Sequence to fold (284 residues):
Amino acid sequence: MRDVTLLDGRLSASRAGFGTAALHHLWRGADRAALLHRCLDCGVTHFDTAPLYGHGLAERELGRLGFGRRGDVTLATKFGIEPEPLAERVALLRYPAMALRAGLRRLRRGAAAARPRDFRAARMRLSLDRSLRNLRADRVDILFLHDPRPDDAGIDDELLRELERVQSEGKVRAFGISGAPAACVAIASRCAPLGGLLQADVGQDAAGAERLRAAGLRASITFGHFREALVASSGADAAAIVSQQTARAVRGNPDGVILFSTRRPQRVADLAARIDALDRAAVA
Fold:
C-alpha cells in the first residue's frame, strides 16, 4: 500500500483509509481491535473518526489500542456535531440511544433526528480537547468540520483564528472540511483556508468532483464510494459492485486517500489489495 501526500507534501497518509463510523456495530472490544489491527496488517494506516461515532466509542477504541501514539498512523477527527451526553458517559445507554435515533430517522425520514451543528470557536476547542483525551494523543493530524452546512453557526473568522491557534500549539497538523461537495464549495468561497484540505462525500453527489474542480478546489480524501455495494452486500452481485466502485474510486481520486468502512476483516484485506492492484496497473 503506497502513501499519498496531502497539502503539497506537508502531510502523508496511506492510499486507503479506514472510516470508523460503523465501528460500534461490533459489540465486542476484541472484534473491534482485530478489525483495526487487520487494517494495519494490510497497510491501511489512515484512520478517520469523530466524536459522534458510537458516541465517543470509536475515538476511545483508537486511543485504547495506542493508535494516537503510533508514528506510522495518521488520525483525522472532527467537530461540530456532538455525541449524546448520556450515551457518551454511560456505556449501557449507548446502544439504546443509537437505536432510538435510527428509529426516528426511519419514522420521519431524518427530520426528527437531524442533529444540531455548532462550529463556534469555543466549541471547537472543547471538542478537540475531548477528542485528544479519547484518542490518548497530544495531537491529531487532521481536524475537520463535520458535515457543515453553509448557514451553520460559527463558521467565521473567529473560528479560523482559533483553528490556526490550535495548529500553532501543535494540537492539530491540518484542518479542513468533511462533507458534501456543494457545502465545501460554498464554505470555502467565504473561508478560503478551510478549502485547503477537503474530505468530500462523493456518494451524495454524482457531479461533486466536477463542482469542486469548477471552483478551483480538490478533494484530497473521498468517501461514500461503497454505499451502493454495502446495500447490495447480501446479493449475488455484491462482489461485482464492489469491484466496479473500487475502480471508479481509484479513477476519480488518483492521488488522494480513498476512505472505506466495513465490519469484516476480510473485506479490509480485499479492498486494500484491490486498490493497490489498480494503482499498480495504472502506472505499469
The first helix runs from residue 29 to 41. Strands lie at 3-6, 11-14, 16-19, 46-48, 74-79, 140-146, 172-179, 198-201, 219-223, 257-260. The chain has a mean pLDDT of 89. Residues 17-81+116-224 form a domain with the TIM Barrel fold (CATH 3.20.20.100).
